[in-house]
Amino acid sequence: MWDARGKLTDSMGRNLKNAVIAFVAPLPSLIFYVYFLGYCSEHGCGVSSRSNSSSGTYLSPLWNWCYNHPILLANLFFLLNVDLLFWLIGLLQSSNWLIDVYWTVIPVLLMHYYATHPLAKFNPWRSRAVMLITWVWAMRLSHNYFRREKWQWGAREDWRFTDMHREYGKSWWWVSFFSIYVAQQVFLIGVCMPFYVIHSVDKPWNFWDFVAVVICITGIVIAYNADTQLYDFVTRNEKLEQLGEPVVPNLDKGLWRYSRHPNYFGEQLWWWGLVIFGWNLGYGWTAVGALINSMCLAYVTVLVERRMLEKEYRAEAYRAYQKTTSVWVPWFKSAPKGGKEKDT
């Protein structure tokens, strides 16, 4: 009994420690940025000369650089606060769990950063709509993460990182910096570029903004329902396993009847919905970030399906599932070779 209590106490202590780490980790960037905003509000920024012509106040080149280069400043924050600091925390804890938590937080931070930067200009209705749906997206994804992790902070790292650690062995300590953190910078800064465009162009709200909102919300709803169905499936199987009964080998109900990865499809709809905002404002190149993210997720899809086929109890059922069910885009089931069409 005392051993069980001791394990529970250790688990609670670790959970509290990781929660504190998660809340403290972004403070360097946040404090610096708040100080920068205060400086610009008091002294003014963006002046090319060494002093403010109206007051004679010396203007630091650092603050002027921060004022004139919002995208570079965002990348600098990411490099120092996420790539370096999160990486060091991962080395100390022998686990790179923190970046998973912040995948849902960093887009929100970037959105508010671009909206509050002194150079920002935007249509308030578009900005408010994007802020609202982005917060909904972040809460949905954060809820799914903590629900899946049984409401624990940093209980484990992503299985893909664990597999890569085994693959690279002793070199993992430095490989992880590039393969996890620098790579995440490319993905996250890229897919969040529509937030920069939205807060850089003051153009009236129009029909395409409405279309973008509908696509984004549709993506959130699909992803939420798909993840909930997956969570319920996993929970039922865990209960069956505890009772010593056979588990269900594969989820093919609900949205999963029409797509092998409806949660991925919903997530991609979200990011491509944001691209429509950028395209509507004359910046179609913002699609590059979403395209890279989609290509990465396509690779992840391959890894996930290989992992599914490695489990003997579900391999046969999953192969049959692959033959009849669309990979991403929900669609009617196809007929297996030599069989009748299943979707009746």
Question: How are the SSEs ordered, and which strands pair?
Answer:
Layout: H1 2-24, H2 27-43, H3 61-68, H4 70-93, H5 98-102, H6 106-116, H7 124-148, H8 159-168, H9 172-191, H10 193-198, H11 207-242, H12 262-280, H13 287-309, H14 312-324
Describe this structure in words.
Keywords: Membrane, Transmembrane, Transmembrane helix. It holds the Pfam family DUF1295. This is Steroid 5-alpha reductase C-terminal domain-containing protein. The protein has about 350 residues and is mainly α. The protein has one domain (about 10-40, about 60-325). The protein contains 14 helices and no strands. It has helices spanning about 1-25, 25-45, 60-70, 70-95, 100, 105-115, 125-150, 160-170, 170-190, 195-200, 205-240, 260-280, 285-310, 310-325. Helix 12 packs antiparallel against helix 13 (about 285-310). The longest helix has about 35 residues, at about 205-240. It starts with a helix and ends in a 20-residue tail after the last helix. The mean pLDDT is about 90.
